[in-house]
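Supplementary notes for students who missed Thursday's class. We covered one full example, reproduced here. Read the sequence, then the structure, then the short commentary at the end.
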Amino acid sequence: MAFTNRKLVIMAKAPRLGAVKTRLAGNLSLRAVTELYSCLLNDTIALAKALQHVEIAIMCPESDVQGLSRSVTEAVHIVPQKGQGLAAGLTSVFAEFANSRHQRVIAFNSDSPHLPASMLEDAFDLLETCDLVVGPTQDGGYYLVGARDSHPGLFISDGMGTGSALELLLTRAQALGLSVRLTSPFYDIDIPTDLNQLSDELQRMPEKAPRTAKWLADWEVSGESKGIP
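Structure (token representation):
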């Protein structure tokens, strides 16, 4: 493989019962949530691999490495993070891969396979002009964050996974004197209304995330979707 200075790191967990997409578990069985997450993850990997001149890796908790290696359908380098939680995982991504100013590294969530590939390309391009690029979600979080340096202290546990996650990250970036650019807002899959939106989108364009589209179609045929508002 030719050398590339673009690295896309998917933040993932092993698809285990009760360990993934927990905010969907009130409306779906634990088995259904786990199956859905596995589809989202593998479609996200396929999206990443479709990008040109980008190296792919997965960052995950150390205890999930073996489980993930059994769950992913394509060969991907899996790297254990140092420490526990998402903040530690993000810190590990940039400590591991952002080892020179020439390297552009993006940490990407594992549940946005429906994201247009052009938005990932745009994020890599923006890193030529700023210290930090962030992809905001519509619920106040973010679906990607990119940098060329590790920036110790940028990620903290407070506010992770909440509606103030993006605001807190931008505040930390400002305190560290980092220049920031934002990509276009998008949605990830955290709550039942997100799942409905994704289902509607993939009914029109199943090729965007074929495993997830098939799972959602089967789920709706089975009648399980009727409890989703």
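Commentary. Residues 20 and 34 are 7 Å apart (CA to CA). The beta strands are 6-11, 55-60, 77-80, 104-109, 132-136, 142-147, 180-182. If anything here is unclear, bring it to office hours.
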